[in-house]
Write a structure and sequence with these properties.
Order of helices and strands: EHEEEEEHHHHEEEEEE
CATH superfamily: 4'-phosphopantetheinyl transferase domain
Strand content: 25-35%
Number of domains: 1
Helix content: 25-40%
Structural class: alpha+beta
CATH architecture: Alpha-Beta Complex
Low-confidence stretches: none
CATH topology: Ribosomal Protein L22, Chain A
Shape: globular
Length: 228
């Protein structure tokens, strides 16, 4: 099972507080997953390129991301990568032309033709997919954005273009969600450009594609989570 934990805290928007809040939430979630008490020590190390891991608990993998007042943490028994971004206006054309491959640009351009007002949403979704691949691998942004592309195939029944990735002979899948800025933090919906608006958040989770597909469970943590 892959578990996704959503946590909302206005203090995450304060650069001076963000790092400490992220660490507190991450440690508490991981201790809960491992059956450790709050008083027990949990060591989090980082691989050479910065990806965090648990040296004493190799069977539990995790990854986290934050944007605005929201952060998400994913846990699983195998490697995962997760990214969340807030939909806000940005000059994405330059980024699209510089860092994205032709096949990736086609995904955004297809939305531009049919729903031009939603092309920004599709770009941000694609960006979160690319970031989640790099976080799955454990490498940073930059030139590697082009080295690990988001690929696409057409679903035989729906005729929709389904994104996927590849790494070291493994096929990677994406789980993408939208969290409405107008909601109260208790529900996310399956990604589709028409479902998102400026101010909403888009999440993408990257994991190894297997048969059967792993169960993915989402949990919204209460605002009092750190006090419990």
């Amino acid at each position: 099972m892959i578990r996704i934990f959503w946590y909302k805290d206005s203090r995450l928007q304060d650069r001076n507080l963000r790092k400490a809040i992220r660490l507190q939430v991450t440690e508490k979630i991981l201790k809960n997953q491992l059956g450790l008490s709050n008083e027990q020590t949990l060591t989090i190390n980082r691989h050479e390129r910065g990806k965090p891991y648990l040296p004493a608990h190799p069977g539990l993998h995790f990854n986290q991301s934050d944007s605005g007042e929201w952060m998400v943490i994913g846990t699983a028994s195998s490697e995962i990568g997760i990214d969340i971004e807030k939909i806000r206006p940005r000059p994405y054309d330059a980024l699209l032309n510089r860092w994205f491959l032709p096949e990736e640009r086609l995904a955004v351009e297809a939305v531009q033709r049919k729903q031009p007002e939603k092309s920004l949403t599709e770009f941000i979704r694609l960006w979160t997919c690319k970031e989640s691949i790099l976080k799955y691998i454990g490498c940073g942004l930059g030139a590697e954005l082009q080295q690990h592309p988001v690929l696409f195939e057409t679903d035989a029944e729906s005729r929709q273009r389904i994104p996927y990735g590849e790494y070291q002979g493994r096929r990677l899948a994406f789980y993408s969600r939208i969290l409405s800025a107008q909601g109260h933090g208790g529900k996310s919906i399956t990604y589709a450009p028409a479902h998102a608006a400026t101010g909403d958040f888009i999440l993408s989770l990257c994991f190894e594609a297997t048969q059967p597909c792993p169960e993915i469970q989402e949990t919204f943590l209460p605002g009092t989570f750190l006090e419990q």
